[in-house]
Amino acid sequence: MTLHRYRALLQLMQSAGNIFALNALSKWARVKTMTKEILQSSDLRALQVLQDFSPGQLNQLSRSMTVLNVRKGEVIYRPGEVAENLYLVLGGEVGLSLLGSKGRALRLVVLSPGEFFGQSALVPSWRHVGHASALRESRIGEIPVRILVEKVCGLSWKNFSALTENTLKPLLLVSLRRAMYLVEDLPNRLASTLWEYASHPEASKKGGLLPLSLTHEELSGLVGASRPRVSLALKKLEERGFFVRKGKQIMVQQAALGAYLRREYEFLL
Fold first, then answer.
1. Edge to edge, what strands does the sheet with 75-77 contain?
2. Which of 22, 91, 198, 241 is deepest in the core (most CB within 10 A)?
């Protein structure tokens, strides 16, 4: 297992922060009219993102990757679908969107040739949490992530997936929850933040009791709202039975809050 192989794979992981979104809107179904073609290694040599790949790795990548010819408006994947493949923009443009509750949606990024997406597949048994679609006629490379890791990069899938499960997944979850703040109302942003802190090992041991340091002022900084607004929103959450107060501390009612968040944001828990 060489440093060169790790560096090559890390090139593919650098844009992992681009895979934001939620599961709420099922109206975007995958469109089945894509056509496929075989990829030539010459299509890959000029891409900056693959500069650390050896000629042998590029040949293996071209043999393992399928090209999807996608028309404008076609969906590449949607929230909730099992994430098994990694994608590379070879031509055209792909839009990644954050889908929130109550019909909210936000375009987060437009990807150009040479950019990877679909990095949810790097975490075993995870589902796509974003919505990806072609903004114009595009060519997209598609490769099963396990083949990429094992055959192209020469790494053990077992070791790699254990690493991503324990390092990449927690980072992605926090990033996704923060991205959610762009489209969600304040009570839901606070509910997500309370859940995140209640999931910490020390809080879990204490039945969801949050630390004294998590004050209204600290919460206001985390969710990007004034302290008075945070206090009003917390009152609404308390009335819904999502937490109780223990002196100056908050004790999250994990069953009630967890059930609510699973309905709203299943793939962010």
1. 75-77, 131-134, 94-99, 105-111
2. 22
Work out the pLDDT band at 6, boundaries 50, 70, 90: very low
CATH number given to 3-179: 2.60.120.10
Instruction: Please tell me the distance from the alpha carbon of residue 84 to that of residue 158, in angstroms, as a whole number.
Output: 15
Sorted by where each begins, the domain ranges of the chain are: 3-179, 185-268
- Between CA 95 and CA 174 the distance in angstroms is 22
Give CA–CA dist 251/246, Å, rounded: 7
The answer to whether 33 touches 69, Cβ cutoff 8 Å, is no
Please report the sign of the dihedral spanned by the C-alpha atoms of residue 44, residue 45, residue 46, residue 50: positive
Q: What is the pLDDT of residues 33-85, one digit of tens each?
A: 566 677 878 879 889 899 899 999 999 999 999 999 999 999 999 888 899 99
Using CA of residue 218, residue 219, residue 220, residue 223, what is the dihedral sign?
A: positive
Nearest alpha-carbon partner for 122 in 17, 13, 6, 267: 13
8 Å CB contact between 95 and 110: yes
